[in-house]
Design goal:
Blueprint (H helix, E strand, L loop, with lengths): L2 H29 L2 E2 L11 E2 L3 H15 L9 H22 L3 H17 L6 E4 L3 E4 L4 H19 L5 H19 L3 H21 L8 H21 L8 H6 L1 H16 L12 H7 L4 H24 L11 H41 L5 H14 L14
Antiparallel strand pairs: 1-2, 3-4
């Protein structure tokens, strides 16, 4: 598998997704798979689901052309595609009938088990200062759980027009580059195909979205990214193998961790949707959907770019000895990524909110003390409940 295969696979998947997404939107309306505006969501109009079917079709078509899964004894690609079909079916049923959480989870387990049985398994990992660690019999079940975790990370992030599709497309491109460099051609081409499929769907999903991918799409992209991460990076004998997926998917990982901890803190079920995600909180302090998504895209590109740089910048040799000049470059790049992350999480979400909140409260009570203002801001941030603020006017809307 070559870079040419990856580029052509991306292009074919993109155009298949562009051609089929409007058809899946019509199907969603016809069968009643339509997302209605809800308090926890940001959509304002009923929007058809099942866009994930177009993503699946694009992945299958491009894979049949450029990966030829039926040739040769290697069952891995066949296993990934079979798992993709199963998880998309489970997601589509959930989009239409709103399945109970336990049924969805069982479906995710089954779908993730299929590629693992086909050989997408982490049998050992290489840790810094420790070396190779053999997982033994625990490798298969841990891989299944890891893939299911990625499925739910992507699913949790699918809450605003274009976010999940864009983040997954960016992440898949990064995985493709890393996998090629690690000599994992099939995984690299598949990652490029996933990126093309997500990007093609994004044509109709960017705000204002004409169609949603639904659980059919978010679960599918999560499974595919999980399998690509395992086969393209984690299975390699590279010290940073575990770091690559964590960095590439850092934005949805951080969002999911934040949301889950918030729900646990306040005794809410983990699987019950709420408005604690980054995109909800940014929207409540006045960011439009487009600006919110573009900021999160930029954050994803920055972190994914750093992950790719870790693979290509020669900051150390094969013996682990640092090249001081390049190591300083990577250290500086890491500081830039960290600073940008702090800016997005802290400045955009907290300091700007504090300024706008202060303006509003002082309009109501000019004698408000700094301590009273600080307590109000802390309470709002702790509970995650904000007033909607107009950034131009500074008052609630």
């Amino acid at each position: 598998m070559t870079e040419r295969d990856a580029i052509l696979g991306f292009v074919v998947a993109f155009f298949v997704a562009v051609a089929l997404t409007p058809l899946t939107a019509r199907l969603g309306r016809r069968v009643g798979a339509v997302d209605q505006p809800r308090e926890r969501g940001l959509s304002e109009n009923p929007t058809p689901l099942l866009g994930g079917l177009a993503i699946l079709a694009a992945v299958l078509v491009a894979s049949l052309i450029f990966l030829d899964p039926w040739a040769g004894p290697d069952e891995k690609i066949r296993g990934i595609l079979a798992g993709a079909i199963v998880i998309t079916l489970v997601g589509a049923l959930d989009d239409r009938f709103d399945l109970p959480p336990v049924i969805k989870f069982i479906g995710q387990i089954i779908a993730a088990t299929i590629p693992v049985l086909a050989g997408i398994e982490v049998a050992n990992i290489t840790l810094p200062f420790v070396g190779a660690v053999d997982l033994g019999a625990a490798g298969a079940p841990l891989t299944v759980l890891g893939i299911v975790f990625v499925i739910n990370v992507v699913n949790f992030s699918d809450g605003v027009d274009g976010l999940a599709a864009g983040v997954c497309a960016i992440s898949a491109v990064a995985f493709s580059i890393i996998a090629f460099d690690l000599g994992r051609g099939s995984a690299a081409v598949l990652a490029a195909i996933v990126a093309g499929s997500a990007a093609g769907f994004l044509v109709f999903n960017f705000h204002p979205a004409k169609v949603f991918m639904g659980d059919a799409g978010s679960n599918l992209l999560g499974l595919l990214l999980g399998c690509v991460a395992v086969e393209g990076a984690v299975k390699t004998q590279v010290v940073l193998a575990l770091v690559f997926p964590l960095l590439v998917l850092a934005v949805p990982f951080l969002d999911t961790t934040f949301v889950v901890l918030k729900r646990l803190k306040y005794g809410r079920p983990v699987y019950v949707a709420d408005q604690s995600h980054f995109h909800h909180r940014m929207n409540r302090i006045g960011f439009s959907q487009r600006k919110t998504v573009l900021y999160l895209y930029a954050w994803t590109i920055l972190i994914a770019g750093f992950a790719v740089a870790l693979r290509f910048v020669p900051y150390s040799n094969h013996s682990g000895e640092l090249h001081i000049g390049w190591a300083l470059v990577m250290f500086a790049a890491g500081l830039v990524v960290l600073a940008a992350s702090v800016y997005l999480i802290y400045v955009l979400e907290i300091l700007k909110f504090r300024r706008l909140r202060e303006r509003r409260l002082r309009g109501v009570d000019p004698q408000l003390s700094e301590d009273e203002l600080a307590r109000d801001v802390v309470t709002k941030l702790e509970t995650g409940q904000f007033d909607v603020v107009d950034l131009d006017q500074g008052d609630s809307s």
